[in-house]
């Protein structure tokens, strides 16, 4: 249960950070959570596929970084789709 809560909190922060980095409109908590969770899946997949390793960094920080990268990618893709 603790892992799910941490995953959701990381997703929430990553969604918020991704929105700030991309300059997306200010979404609500649910929007940040959804973007962050989907971004975590995208970022985790990409980091594993590209063989990106982060030795020495705390696992929680690595999760936040990969989720934020995934969130930015997702928001950029959504911006292109909306146009």
Structure in a nutshell:
By secondary structure, the chain is mainly α.
| Termini separation | 40 Å
Specify Rg, calculated over alpha carbons. 12 Å
- Work out the oligomeric state of the chains in this entry: single chain
Number of H- or I-type helical stretches:
3
Q: Level of helix content?
A: over 70%
Shape: globular
Query: Mean pLDDT across all residues, rounded?
Result: 90
Largest sheet: none
Structural class: mainly alpha
Strand content: under 5%
Low-confidence stretches: none
State the order of secondary-structure elements, H for helix, E for strand: HHH
Per DSSP E runs of 2 or more residues, the count of β-strands stands at 0
Structure characterization notes:
By secondary structure, the chain is mainly alpha-helical. The longest helix is centred in the last third of the chain and has 24 residues, at 59-82. The protein contains three helices and no strands. The chain has a domain at 27-83. Helix 1 packs across helix 2, helix 1 packs across helix 3 (59-82) and helix 2 packs across helix 3. It starts with a helix and ends with a helix. The relative contact order is 0.21. It has helices at residues 2-22, 29-50, 59-82. Helix content is 81%, strand content 0%.
């Amino acid at each position: 249960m603790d892992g799910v809560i941490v995953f959701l909190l990381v997703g929430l922060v990553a969604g918020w950070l991704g929105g700030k980095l991309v300059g997306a409109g200010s979404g609500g908590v649910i929007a940040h959570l959804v973007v962050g969770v989907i971004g975590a899946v995208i970022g985790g997949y990409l980091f594993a596929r590209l063989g990106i390793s982060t030795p020495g960094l705390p696992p929680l920080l690595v999760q936040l970084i990969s989720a934020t990268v995934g969130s930015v990618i997702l928001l950029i893709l959504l911006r292109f789709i909306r146009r």
